[in-house]
Amino acid sequence: MKLKAGVKLAGLQPQIVLAMLIVEEVFEEFGVPLVVTSCNDGKHSAQSLHYNGRAFDARTKYPELDGRELELQTALREALGPDFDVALEAIGTDNEHAHLEFDPK
Question: Do the beta carbons of residue 16 and residue 56 sit within 8 Å?
Fold first, then answer.
């Protein structure tokens, strides 16, 4: 696992730390490294779970994933379970990433 420069880990909830380890394994299955691009840093919507340590973003812009993003999203959802939301954001841009958040229903 790698952290993009400037990513802050202070205040992360334990569920997110565990999720990062699980997500790293899924990314390895797809042949790409896990690069965390944001936690509770950066700009997010006012109601974002990033700000209370319950969300992180992971890079998905890899040539190895071209056309397999939905397959990755499904694998992440299955690995993390129903208490997590997984959304693909900014697909096709330089900021392409998966948003993962702990949001039990």
Answer: yes
